[in-house]
Amino acid sequence: MYNSPIIRCQTYLIGMAVGWLLQNRRKVKIHNLLNLACWPVVLATMLAVTLGLYSEGGGTALPVFWRAMYSSLSRIAWGCCLAWIIIACWYGYGGPINAIMSSTFWVPLGRLTYCGYLMQIPVIMLLSSLHVSEVWMSSSLEMVVSRYIPNVVVTFIVSIFYSALFELNFANVIFIFCSL
């Protein structure tokens, strides 16, 4: 069920609605009081979605109702929060969040994120297949050091090569054809 594309369609629809809004509405006036009220709500909602299942990691199961609510609404809530951040920053209501997100520091990482997204599953499968015996984790720190960091580092190394071999070359080809 998790791999079905229909599971994520709500977030895609929210993203398409935001894209339509940004394309067709050049100016949007957001009242200052609404802007000030939305930011804490958005940040609290994102924190709740991120940490919503924290107790489950410790062995305490949430009641079925709250698990169903989380499963059905967490992606929609996350998509709406991202939509607000994008809309607020695009129309000039982002403040320091816009300054952070618009920093040139993110440009190299932003170009590699899609390649990293495409390459992460093959890298995880490759690194997992290198273990000849069962893997036992005794702490979260051990899991981060032995699994998470190597997966991220190898994924970004592979993404650099993948981007250089395919993405940048196809972008140049497209640029040449568009300039004709």
UniProtKB/TrEMBL annotation:
Record key words, sorted: Membrane, Transmembrane, Transmembrane helix
InterPro entries to which the protein is assigned, alphabetical: O2_lipid_transport_reg (IPR052728)
PANTHER family in alphabetical order: NOSE RESISTANT-TO-FLUOXETINE PROTEIN N-TERMINAL DOMAIN-CONTAINING PROTEIN (PTHR11161:SF55), O-ACYLTRANSFERASE (PTHR11161)
Transmembrane segments: 33-55, 75-93, 114-132, 152-178
This protein's name: G protein-coupled receptor
Domain of life, source organism: Eukaryota
